[in-house]
Amino acid sequence: MSIPSIEPAVASIRPTAQKCAIRGSLLHFIANPADVAVATESYQYFADGLLRIEHGLIVELREYHPEDAILYPELEDRSGQLIMPGFIDTHIHYAQTEMIAAYGEQLLEWLETYTFPTEQQFADKAYATKIAQFVINELLKNGTTSALVFGTVHPQSVDAIFEQAATHDMRLIAGKVMMDRHAPDYLLDTPESGYRDSKALIEKWHNCGRLQYAITPRFAPTSSAAQLKLAGELRAEYPDTYVQTHVSENKNEIEWAKSLFPECRGYFDIYQHFGLTGPKSIFSHAIHLTDEEWQVFSETDSVIAFCPTSNMFLGSGLFPLQRASRENVRVGLGTDVGAGTSFSPLQTLCDAYKVMQLQGQKLSALDGFYLATLGGAKALSLSDKIGTLAVGSEADLVVLDWAATAVQKLRMDKANALEERLFALMMLGDDRNVAATYVAGRCVYDGANLR
Hints:
By secondary structure, the protein is α/β, with parallel strands linked by helices. It has 16 helices and 16 strands. α4 (about 155-165) packs parallel to α5 (about 190-205) and α12 packs across α16 (about 420-430). The longest helix is centred in the first third of the chain and has 17 residues, at about 125-140. The chain is globular and about 65 Å long. The two termini are about 25 Å apart. Residues about 1-10 have low confidence and may be disordered.
């Protein structure tokens, strides 16, 4: 893969913008649309609004008044554009970017054929840094301001993604893969080295600026009981860290996991047994959970990352989003690049709608955009900071053009109500609709250039 050379990564946190005022159409959610009697009670919308930012935080949200142009000479006029909280990606493998759209396999064969050889390259810190910069840039170009990221087994892969995120002061969570078996020798750690390296990375990066750490066993089949035990001990030592892993993505994977841990009641029980479930534990996929597993998910307040694009690409199955809602299980949206084939949360929502349709269910535009913003923030236990335009929250924003293509313009010309326009944007939109991205109050992407 040919990637432009870059300057050395800057590990220090970029200072936030001092003051900013933006005019435009403002939309954010204040509740889950599924939990309110009337859909309009779930969001706040200003067709012509004013958003003011100071020192990276939102300090005012209201209707725009004509005198605001005089009061705020720094005013950025984005009339006719939609301003929302930045999108939140709750599952992405940054090291798999260059193998995106790899042909013809389901999960386990796909890992052996494509993923493991690709991840081997991240032993080289310079290479990891190039890919990390590429990925951070793609996230910002797609309006994603926060993400939960898998590194590789190499500690330097985590250093690289954190360093690149820090140059933009992004709120990003990442972790080193822990994997001591059932993978090529060149990608294996040991229970002890996985624990030691992860602990060192926690001490180095967790709560450094807006960066946080996730303890990251790849999935139960590639970790021994000894490694999962140490992962659980690490979690107990650092209870405010996250855990990220996979569960019940593929039926063959489920049977394999159960055969490796016969003492456990099922796949999800493996993680419960080793102390890896809980409110800050995010499990990707969870397509094929049993009734008992749904109950334990709810009881432990564990979280699911819904990855519709990769689930369809790998033929894994259809995630039962409505079941998760009934069970009071928090869910965030994940692109899951590289099994996912797009960095765009808009395209991912388009696929989420199709997953629901294939189950005879619906995903409204309000449900979708909630999932990509406040829903994702709640999934990551960060709704007091991101996923919202509420006063006091961090000023991570995406500015969207309603129509970036001829087809979109034709459709929008016939769409009047807000929900109809949002649905068309959800189904037809992609990175071309992203007019700007703001992180901590600073414009880091202006629709053409990264800053």
